[in-house]
Amino acid sequence: xxxxxxxxxxxxxxxxxxxxxxxxxxxxxxxxxxxxxxxxxxxxxxxxxxxxxxxxxxxxxxxxxxxxxxxxxxxxxxxxxxxxxxxxxxxxxxxxxxxxxxxxxxxxxxxxxxxxxxxxxxxxxxxxxxxxxxxxxxxxxxxxxxxxxxxxxxxxxxxxxxxxxxxxxxxxxxxxxxxxxxxxxxxxxxxxxxxxxxxxxxxxxxxxxxxxxxxxxxxxxxxxxxxxxxxxxxxxxxxxxxxxxxxxxxxxxxxxxxxxxxxxxxxxxxxxxxxxxxxxxxxxxxxxxxxxxxxxxxxxxxxxxxxxxxxxxxxxxxxxxxxxxxxxxxxxxxxxxxxxxxxxxxx
Amino acid sequence: xxxxxxxxxxxxxxxxxxxxxxxxxxxxxxxxxxxxxxxxxxxxxxxxxxxxxxxxxxxxxxxxxxxxxxxxxxxxxxxxxxxxxxxxxxxxxxxxxxxxxxxxxxxxxxxxxxxxxxxxxxxxxxxxxxxxxxxxxxxxxxxxxxxxxxxxxxxxxxxxxxxxxxxxxxxxxxxxxxxxxxxxxxxxxxxxxxxxxxxxxxxxxxxxxxxxxxxxxxxxxxxxxxxxxxxxxxxxxxxxx
Lengths: 347, 241
What we know:
The complex is a heterodimer. Chain A is mainly alpha-helical. Chain A contains 15 helices and 2 strands.
């Protein structure tokens, strides 16, 4: 290995690591707020990447049917719940959010499909399609059992993963798609050629991380999410409902998934199940952060990126095994080094 | 006017019933004390009134039945519980804890800042420690923070679970002083206490809860004068007085 190769591998590592870091942050948000180990995070990545590529080929992506269908089911469930409570006050809002909004997004998707060169519009529409799927998924799969044990929630998450992957196969087929490159920029720094694509990934990831930090540190809603993560009972007693924080954290996770999907779409060919692999590597990063620490999760994800990149050079046949084997020493170290801090034992 | 009336009120966990057929009433602007020994069901009673534990029977609050509402909906209507375990946000600064106390209220500019200033005026120690993480506070300060956070919601009915638990006598006196003072601002208070003497001193009305049943009730002074209460809860010092 010479310097050029090392630099080239490092560039690859940082680019991938930035995406794993985003995913790891989403997993930590969802886990600390709702105690869900969010297996379906990867589906947001696949959905976003495939939707973007489909829009670029001038077609309307099938994900809008998932969105419209999911919205109708949520609206019906909300309606039934309202009937049971004998108060129809919440109905107009639910209809607007779950039926009218998806239809509007579908119309935007149709419009965007007719303009295959408008990259910005495609990105906005892709995010608009994927992000509402997060709160919908929470409402349908997790809210009814929000107080179940971590294990039960994990089982639900696995089931949701299979359902969403299956829907992805139905709507996008088994063949991979690749989005067009974003404006091709290249810089020559010494022996290294830096692609505009990887700079875009890293800058976007950094911006998103800073935004998240601002949301959690400065805004009332962000603080409400943190409060729920710190003390669930205390949060309910000041009026922060688990339903509210659950939907908000899932919306954030879906947003992060959508952005990650858009970032990777031009780099690799995405299949309906590619997102799962990406999110598993983010998961390794999140585990390194103990599923609770944002900075450690981000650093861990970067480490995963490096490990993956260098092992694909030395032992490319084993690169996935090497990355996932990293979980074992990390879990050992975690279980030995951390005191029990499972539940909110003191206030 | 009745602030709160619970009728045929019971709490059970699975098959074990901890409170049975209680009838409880709080008039607007009153302090009502519920005293009783450890394990009588006092904490369960409050948890069920705020909706954390499931209950049967009716809970009429400000003329409407709230028994089917979620905790958050009851909080929005002005019910507020300061739990025995305080349930603060330990990894957040004192000031964030207080600000989140106003989460249930519509956010209009200025109001929350006013309330924050009022809480700091009532508990100057909290102002000194406002940038400190809540988990670094002493027991007395935690109780102040829990009370302050509850006040940020501008409650109409404040329920306090053992506010004196684990505190030094001087701080207990301060806390009870604050509670008595709150009544003057028009808040109705349901006070659950093992410290029967202090509770009955500031209360208007008292209930005695034993083994999940209300065995005695009456104006606080009468309850405090009841020979059984004196023997069981107030002890020798009261007899000497």
